[in-house]
Amino acid sequence: MTTEIMPFDFNGNQVRTVTKDNETWFVAIDLTKTLDIKNTSDALKRLDDDERSRFNLGRQGEANIVSEAGLYSFIGASRKAEARKFMRWVNHEVLPSIRKHGAYMTDAKIEQVLTDPDTIIRLATELKTERQAKAELQQNNLVLNQQVNELKPKADYADVILNNKALVTITFIAKDYGMSGVKMNELLHELGVQYKQGTTWLLYAKHQRKGWTQSETHEVVKKDGTTKLVPNTKWTQKGRLGLYELLKENSYLPLIEKEEIA
Question: Where is each Bro-N domain found (predicted)?
Fold first, then answer.
């Protein structure tokens, strides 16, 4: 919330305005003195709740303030001959206009306001309606902004996978889920993805043609100096994505998506 106090002078009388959330308010005691209204409290009681408020003026403490709509009621209650001049002064020096709904004060309009109470009520109602519409528009803009943000592509786990073309080990994938490679292998066995043959994990037949893995064979030198061939299975990014979808179906999420939910 932003506020700004601006003092004006009308025939030797100080009239302070307060800009509060882009709306102009008037210090009530200044209006009653200028318009020769005897009882400020009674004048405030005649206003609706949204036409009056309180504001801290600093060293002078809290003061009652009235909105532009409340200003009309104060002017209408004034018996001072200078009320007409005050209205013109507010219009031409304090406020460049009173919103967009045609309430700019020509001399004829000022005369109508000062002589016809219904005009005051109508202008106040129009001002309230416009403020309500402005508030609704601001709310709608906030909602639209949120929807735009929600539609922006997120850097989720699937994005990470699609941006990586390299082969990866099961241990590498397991770290994304906060697991060890051993635990991930056991979990994939429980989910019917693979089985263990000796020391090697192999895919069940239904997954073997999906392009999930790529096997490599390495020559290893044994202690006695002889060599043996050891198979080494790595996962493709397609396989990594397939595991992601399978694990997600079974309520296992990668850490990056758990953080988004949290």
Answer: 2-102
